[in-house]
Structures are given as structure tokens and as C-alpha cells.
Amino acid sequence: MSKKTREITYAQAICEALDEEMQRDENVVLLGEDVGFLGGNFKTSVGLLDKYGEWRVKDTPISESGFVGMGIGMALTGMRPVIELMFSDFLLVAADQIFNQAAKIIYMSGGQVKVPLVIRTPIGAGRSSAAQHSQSMQAMAAHFPGIKVVVPSTAVEAKGLLKTAIRDDNPVLFFEHKMMYNSKFEVPDEVEPIPFGKANVVREGKDITIVATSSMVVKSLQAAEKLAKDGIDAEVIDLRTIVPLDRETIIESVKKTGKLLITDEAYERCGIGSEIAADVMEDVFYYLDMPILRLCNPNVSLPFSPALEFPIIPSADKVYEKVKEVFR
Amino acid sequence: MAEVVIMPKLGFNMDVGKLVKWYKSEGDEIKKGEPLFAVETDKTNIDIEATCDGVVKKLLIQEGDSVAVTTPIAIIGEENEDVEELIQKELSVAAGSSDEKPNVQVQEKEEEKTEIAKRSSSTQLQGTDRIKITPRARRIAEENDLDITQLSIVGTGFQGGICARDILNFLEESKVKATPLARKLSELEKIDLNTVQGSGVKGKIMKQDVENIINERMKQEKPETTEETTKEIAISEDGKEILEVVPYSGVRKIIGDRLSQSKFTAPHLYFTRSVDLSNLLAFRKQVNASQEKKTSVTDYIVLAAVKALQKYPDINSALIGDSIYKYKSVNVGVAVAADSGLIVPVIKNAEKMSLIEISKEASRLIEKAREGKLLPAEYTGGTFSISNLGMFGIENFTAIINPPESAILAVSATEKRAVVVTNENGEDEIVIRPMMNITLSVDHRLIDGLLAAQFVAEVKAQLENPIGLVL
């Protein structure tokens, strides 16, 4: 494997993963609004229409329920469709297809048929996209059995995890963070698929464990550097996938640090933080030196005005403050 | 630099000092050598002088208060010095000392002081006796055999609770306190400071303590090389040939001091009865044949004493300060001869135990005692003691009460004796019976002869009709 790296954006990394998988397997097709002619709303499929033609890269009408349903049908017949939903908020438009159909077919058919379908969709606030285009739907998606939920943090992670998602035989919801698309990262020339259910300890520390998803990983690392200056040595874990969940890595870390903060951009109520806190509690109770903390989106719809929007979004400063509060 | 004044220890057995008078008020100037306060001891009141010049910044206790020795009681500093932080720190130490020794915390202000201090502690959960402590801290405390409820650890964690760091700091601080000189000396001589009993303030190890150990060690190590010299000096001034001279110190001295304290303060009174063990020995044989745990005669004597103590709870009492404590718990100490000296492990709450449970607990404790592994909690807190020298063939002896208990039962050997009994036909006849003498020593300050006699009779009755012990 080449050790050479180059600087590309998160969006380019996704585009490369799609390209490499389409080249590897002719059953991989791309469907979605503006994925072809425009190269994707967030430029994640630039050049693919020219390279693979309109049979494999298909612009669809504005009908999420329709083209997600079409994708499920393709998957059932042996293809490997990757569907782009322009905003994760629109999952709700196609909710019946995703949660009642795709997620359940393998169970209801007694395992006779499978749905190797990937739905890529952006999450996150910060672009004044207002209440219906800024939500983070990973917590809601993780509630349903039968769906794998992926929350890549950086370009390398996005590329490696998307490859795994496309090769997976079950429906995968792949949540890209819209504020990360233009962020640049050093990426190796070759990126191998990253297995699901194996969290990544991106910073080792002994004083507190910060479990983060998606863009919160980079923000938590920034907070950790600031905390280090105050003598607090934080361990940061990139969860990578919410379903399946790597409980062991979290438990092992909390046993060491005695403290756990979970940060995720979905709503706090019934959110990722709540779920992980309850899930690991039995294993870490006698190691906890502090109640488990959450830093998520407050339980309020996202406003249009940046002046109101930014105070709500979990940030590096908020992670820092939250940790400092309990170390006072 | 402010100086903390502590309650001085004015005698070996002084655990608590009662402050009878402050000669200075807060804000008064004081010169080195001027009397600062008066302390009541068992004999007289003693004036204590200031050891430095300055201003009395704070009096931490009031006239009439009794506190454990070495508890901080006042702070002397310079006129403009800010000692607020120091006061808070020492107050917490003072509160801690009263928590540690509830038994000796005395009378007057007891209710309002200890209770309020406990409730208002930041680590107490409001309205309950539960301590605010994180699961992690509790686990670490348990791993280190710390009893949180007995320690006054101030929490610095979430919402003022005790967190892991507080326990670790406590362990670090309580490691061993020693002067730098003592530490250096012990390093040079390779002495484990954990084994040294400190004689300084709050048990701090002083140079002298380490030197004592070195001296003892030298005496033990050099019997051969110093043979000639010892031969020369092994004659006492009045012409006696000396085998060995060892210091009266350590465990020997503690045993000695406690026993003389007991014998000199508690007027002992003795009551002896002989007990016919025929039934008990037969019964024991059946018990040992019917289950795995082999019971000893001592186990039955413990159980008989427990039954008798429950019938006569006045025996199960202690004189502490100006109060007689009568206990519901029956915690029976069983004297054991260990290599290091006499030690009395305590079977706690024996009133709730069956014969086999008592037997198992006694075996466990005695074994630990012989190995020198008893924890302090396992040899303190007794309410009554038993000393059995039967296995050594002793026919009769009296025991010294283990203070602050009020009675002890001395058990002698079982031997076959010719005794006169009345047979079924109402005729007297001489028969051979296994007989055992038991002698009760009581503290006559608390227990009168009639009660003692009734108690001994009850023990005798229980042992002669052992079936009652297990019903």
C-alpha cells in the first residue's frame, strides 16, 4: 500500500470512494437529485456521469419516496444502488420505504432476500439552512432494527467507510456532515475499507473519555488540545458507526478514565448520548467518577438566523466548557 | 506564619482532653510562655503555655469542650495575617477527630455538635446518612479496605461528592508521616516505615522512633559477637546474673499499660463455679459427627456466655467517660496467645449467630490472630471477653478485665474429678465427672455481687444443659 498522501476535501473523498467502487463492481449504481449533470448538490459525484454513463448515474425527479423505493427494488434484484438524499431531513419523506420496507425485508422474508442499499445524506447545521434542512437524523435512524448507521468524521474515514457500506449486504444509512464537505485532509493514495463496529481512538488520554460522532470528532480533538493546556488529558474516540456500536472500546476507555462525555449533533432527547450512556452503564458503573455527560443539539428546532443558530450547535468551545465545568 | 495549637497529650492513656478555660480571647496578643488555656486531666488541671508570640486569631473549640488529643484547638498568627483558609482546614480536621472517636466524644455539646457537623458536611446527602461518593471512588476505597463512614474525607468532585482523586489523595496523605530525618535514617537502615509506631504529633514518626527500632535490631543481631562483652556486663548492680535485657516497648508495653490501667482503675471482683461437662462433651461429639465443622469447647462457652449476656445485659456494658453504655450487640472477645503477645479477636454480633457460625468465625479469627493478620476492626469493639487456658491444664485462674468492658470470663481445664451427686433414689454418691472451673471477673463499679453470681450460674446452667444452646 502506498504511503503517499495528498490533500483532498471530504467531498472529494466520497466522490473517489464512489468512483473506485463503481469501477470495481458494475452492479454499483448512483441515484439521486442532481447527482449526474450537476455532480451532486455538494459536489460528491463530479465526473461520474461522464465516466459511467446515464445508466449507472441517474438523475431522479424530486420524489424521495419514489426513487428510494426504486433503489430497494434494484437491490432486491441483485444490484448495489447508492442513493443520495439531498438533505437527511428528507429521510422522513421516504421514511416508509426506508424503515418499513428496506429495514424489514430481510426479516420478513426469513433471510431469503437482502437489500444491499446505501443511502448517503448530509446532516448538520451551520449554513442557515433553517429547521427543515439542518437536522441530524442519525439518532432517529439508529432507533430502527435492520439499518446500519455510519457517521464518518474525516475524508479518510468517509472514503474507507463508504467502501464498506457499498460492499455491505444490508441497508446502510451513511450520514455525511455538510459542514465538512469543503474541509481538506491529508489522505493516502489508497484507502482500504474500514470495518463497521470498530471505533477509533483518535487521541489517547487518561482523565476523561470523549465519545464523538461525525464532525464532533474534529471539534473534540480541538477541545482536547485546549484542555491539555489546562492539564486535562482527554481521550477522544471516533465512534465511526452508531449501528453496530463498539461498546468494548468505550467501556475499556471509561474504565481507565472514570469519566464519559458523549457528543453528537442530533437532538439530545432520546439521542446518541442517552443511548450510549444507558448502554455502557452496567459495565462501567463501578468505574464512574462522575455522572455521564451529553453534549448534543438542544431540544429545539434549528433557527434560520446565524445569530440564533450558532449558539445552539455543539462546538469545540462547548466541549471544552462542558469538561471544564466538571473538573472545576 | 500562623501556628496551630493542638490539644496536648499529657499522659500515655490520655485520649481526650477537656478544655476548662481559655485565658485569652480571639484578637488578644500573646507572648511565648504566657498561659493560653487550661486542660483537665484525670488528676488535675494543667495550664498550657503559648509556644510563640502573636495574636490569637481563632479559638476552634469552646470552654467545656472535650476533644481528642492532637485535635487543632486554636490558631495563633500575626496581627494582619489572613488565616481563614487555615481555619477551614483545621476545622475539618477537628470535625474529623470527633467523628473518629464517637465513643470518647463527651457529654455537653454532643448532640448539637457532632450531629450538626455531620449533617452539614458537604459530602452528606441531604436528609440521609448516605455519603456522596462516586462508584469509582467507592470501589477504590473498598479495594484499600477503607471504611468511608469512618473517615472525614472532604469531597471535591461532582456536586461536592467524594471522587477517586479524593480517595487517592487520602491514601497518599495517610501513607506514613515521618520527619525528614527519620525518613533518611530509615532509608539508610532499610527499615520499613510502615512498621514503625510514630510517637510524634498525629503519629508522625520521629528520629527517636527509628533509633529505637535500630537499637532493638542490633540487640537481636549481635548475640554471638557480643558474647564476651555481655558476659562482662551481665551482672546487675546488686549482683544478679542477667540473662537478657529487652526494652519495655511496643506490643508488650501496650498490653502492660492497658492491663495495669484496667486493674488500677476497675476494682475487680471474682466469682468461681465448677461446671459439669459430661452432657456438653457428649453433645459436642454428636455435633462434630453430624456435620463438617469441628466445634471446640470454647465455641460452646462463647455461646453460653452470649445467652447469659442476653439474659443479664447489665454485664454487657462499658463505663466510658461519665456514662454507662449497655449494649444490645454482644461482641465476644476471645483471648489468643500469638507470637507477638496476647491479642483478643472479637466475634461481632454473636447474638445473631448459631453455634456453627460462632465456631466458624472463631476459627477464622484465631487463625488470623496467630498469623498476626488481624485488622484493627477485628480486635476492637468487644463488649465481653473470654480467656480459656483449659488446654494448658490450668486448674484455676482469674483474668483481668479488658477495658472498657466490664467483665471477663476465665476458663480453666476440664479434668476428671470425684464429685458428690444425688442419685435417682435420693442418695448421695461419689462419681467421676469431667469438671471445669469458670471464674468471672467483674468491674465492681458497674456490677454487684448478686448480678455476677446470677450470671455465672446462668453460664453454668447453659453449659450443663447444652441442648438449650442450640434451641
Give me a quick take on this structure:
The complex is a heterodimer of chains A (328) and B (471). By secondary structure, chain A is of the alpha/beta class.
Give the tally of β-strands of chain A.
14
Estimated share of beta-strand residues of chain B: 15-25%
Please give the CATH class of the largest domain in chain A.
Alpha Beta
- CATH architecture grouping of the largest domain in chain B: 2-Layer Sandwich
Strand order of the largest sheet of chain B: 9-18-17-16-12-15
Runs of chain B in which pLDDT lies below 50 for 5 or more consecutive residues are 97-120, 225-231
Give me the secondary-structure category of chain B: alpha+beta
Output the radius of gyration of chain A. Answer: 19 Å
Compute the separation of the termini of chain B in Å. Answer: 68 Å
Number of separate helices of chain A:
11
- Proper CATH architecture of the largest domain in chain A: 3-Layer(aba) Sandwich
Q: Class by helix and strand content of chain A?
A: alpha/beta
Please identify the oligomeric state: heterodimer
Which geometry of chain A do the CA atoms define?
Answer: globular
Residue runs with pLDDT of under 50 for 5 or more positions of chain A: none
What percent of the residues of chain A sit in helical stretches (DSSP H or I)?
25-40%
Say what the CATH topology of the largest domain in chain B is: Chloramphenicol Acetyltransferase
Query: CATH superfamily name of the largest domain in chain B?
Result: Chloramphenicol acetyltransferase-like domain
